[in-house]
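Q: Predict the assembly, please.
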Amino acid sequence: MKILFFAHLRDATGCAEIERHFGAVDAAGLWDRLIAEFPALGKFRPGVRLARNGEYVDPGAHFSDADEVALIPPVSGG
Amino acid sequence: MEAKIEIELTARAIDLCRELPAEFAAVAGARVEFAGNVRGEENGRAIAALEYEAYSPMAEREMRRILEDILQRHDCLFVRVTHRTGIVPVGEAAVHVVALARHRAAALALVPEFMNRLKQDVPIWKRRALSEADLKMI
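A: Predicted assembly structure:
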């Protein structure tokens, strides 16, 4: 799956996107893997929403390797 | 009649006087606009610009979804939303919303509701504040 990082999450990971093969994974499993690879993401987790293929998903959502997953920190447009 | 929606993310200055579709000239009794400008101060310090970042495909989709929802309750004819990305100098508009409606109530209601929801759900971020010195280094 392609995983996108925005705003300060990009600073925390040092990259805008990564490609990983996690297989079928739920949101908690995805977070576990990401925080294991990028420990600096951990403190932001409570305020970050997940999007799958450009749409917000519930915390219980599942993901596959075909998905584009975005970590959406609190927005500040306008 | 279903409202016409135009959404644009742009790295260029927003033309606040951009022409509106002629088809609504004779039926729109109300035109309500909002421009959100970059102020010269952010968190108590003087700035020269803000840099915006967007998850563009989702931002455009989310803005459309929000507008379609609001339009079910507020019967407008036309809505155009333009949002800047990249560096936006102080004094320039970061966002511009124009709503046309037959009567003022719908357009007056749509614009603030849309702005509130944009600030909650649309994946656009103020990435950083830039000083004059920062701008010279870019």
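The mean pLDDT of chain A is 97. The first helix of chain A runs from residue 8 to 13.
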